[in-house]
Design brief:
heterodimer, B: alpha/beta, five-stranded parallel sheet, 5 helices
Chain lengths: 222, 206
């Protein structure tokens, strides 16, 4: 079981690093959105630092979305999905390996790059560790939720748009608690741990539902 | 292990593609599936590979222990399931580790299909026939008793077709089973044949 999981994880990470892979694209997209916002809002540092965590979270959400449509679609198109169905492990493990690889190349870099991009939106220094923490535990929820949509739209040609429409509503709770946890670290009446622990719970919940849901969607076929 | 298929039928898009397909396969057996274009040959293999679900009938796997049918078979379809960005060797290493029960090393498998020199080439650089041979080399890197081959000779040159026939016969000699769809005659030693006929349209109750 571990062997199949690791083989698929290594394959997907290698593919992401190769030419045409989705590796750095999410990060560049993230940077592009965060850079655009100050241009649109104007040079009001107070305003920027107040909505900074929200900007970074929305950018992270969109950056996660852009790579998701290829999660299962690429394998569907070249027939690899048929190969993955022959695994000596349940399809849930296959989904877990693919989602883990996807998070390692999109979610994790986003979280690690957040402090540098936080400078662009005048984020106060004491908010940065909190923001990184919320993105670290919150982005898996986005990826797992999105995996269900990716599995449902795997065989559709223009699946990317439908995927966004399908999964965005389910990402709202993660967005709310992610941003409120990041804001709570800077100040406010709510202690940081309250929204943060709910965010952790959302990620764990999304992990279970996302894996089972995506595997069921793949099983039901075309 | 043995495979028994009884009265298998398949519906797609609300239409019956074929019905009443029955056959049995014992160790060392081979089955050639023939039929016109669009008759449902590939669909039959996809049913066996677990990609589609039968509308009626049964697929039974006997004497296979706790393994499911999907864990006992190799499937080589029209789409070759190779990643263009990876080298041929990386593709085979993945298949070997992922499918479990490893047999030949990727190098040996590539040599067996006559592509020993292409190990470090990305699959994107290869021709259709070479890609097909890599997909067939996947049969050799992991041991699975049942091979499902969808028009395995397509895009292969005469020499490669001979190699494929030899590989299939060697697999059967070791107790393996082969089910292949084909248009061209496939000279497999005492192979059974199933002809898939398109089911007549059932008059709908208006």
């Amino acid at each position: 079981m571990i062997r199949s999981f690791r083989a698929l994880l290594v394959r997907d990470l290698t593919l992401a690093a190769r030419v045409g892979g989705s590796g750095p694209m999410g990060l560049i997209f993230f940077l592009a959105i965060v850079t655009l916002i100050p241009f649109a809002l104007g040079p009001d540092l107070n305003l920027l630092s107040r909505i900074g965590p929200a900007i970074l979270w929305i950018a992270a959400l969109l950056a996660t979305l852009i790579g998701l449509d290829r999660l299962f679609q690429a394998d569907q198109e070249d027939g690899s999905l048929d190969l993955l169905r022959l695994a000596p492990v349940p399809l849930e493990i296959v989904v877990l390996a693919k989602v883990t690889a996807h998070w390692l190349v999109t979610g994790l870099p986003l979280a690690l790059a957040a402090p540098f991009l936080g400078l662009l939106v005048a984020l106060p220094p004491d908010a940065m560790p909190a923001l990184v923490a919320t993105l670290l535990v919150g982005t898996p929820a986005l990826t797992f939720t999105g995996a269900v949509g990716a599995a449902l739209t795997a065989s559709l040609r223009r699946g990317g748009l439908i995927l966004a429409v399908l999964v965005l509503p389910f990402m709202i709770p993660t967005l709310i608690f992610g941003v409120s946890a990041a804001n709570a670290a800077v100040g406010g009446t709510v202690p940081f741990m309250t929204p943060f622990l709910i965010l952790v719970a959302l990620s764990l919940f999304a992990a279970v539902v996302g894996i089972v849901g995506a595997a069921a969607a793949l099983r039901s076929g075309e | 292990m043995r495979l028994e298929v009884e009265d298998l039928a398949c519906d797609r898009g609300g239409r019956r593609i074929f019905g009443d397909v029955s056959f049995a396969l014992a160790p060392g057996g081979a089955l050639v599936v023939t039929g016109r274009n669009g008759a449902g040959k590939s669909t039959l293999l996809e049913l066996l590979a677990g990609r589609l679900h039968p509308a009626a009938g049964r697929i039974r796997l006997l004497e296979a222990g706790e393994r499911t049918l999907a864990e006992c078979l190799h499937y080589v379809g029209h789409r070759d399931a190779l990643k263009s960005a990876l080298t041929t060797e990386e593709n085979l290493v993945f298949a070997r580790n992922f499918l479990g029960d490893p047999a030949l090393t990727p190098q040996e498998a590539l040599a067996a299909v006559g592509l020993a020199h292409a190990g470090r080439l990305p699959v994107a650089y290869l021709s259709a026939g070479q890609r097909r041979r890599i997909a067939l080399a996947r049969l050799l890197v992991a041991h699975r008793p049942l091979w499902l081959l969808d028009e395995p000779t397509a895009a292969l040159d005469a020499a490669a077709q001979d190699t494929l026939l030899r590989l299939m016969e060697a697999h059967r000699d070791q107790g393996g089973m082969v089910i292949a769809t084909t248009h061209a005659p496939l000279p497999l030693r005492d192979a059974g044949e199933v002809r898939i006929e398109r089911a007549r349209p059932v008059p709908s109750e208006a």
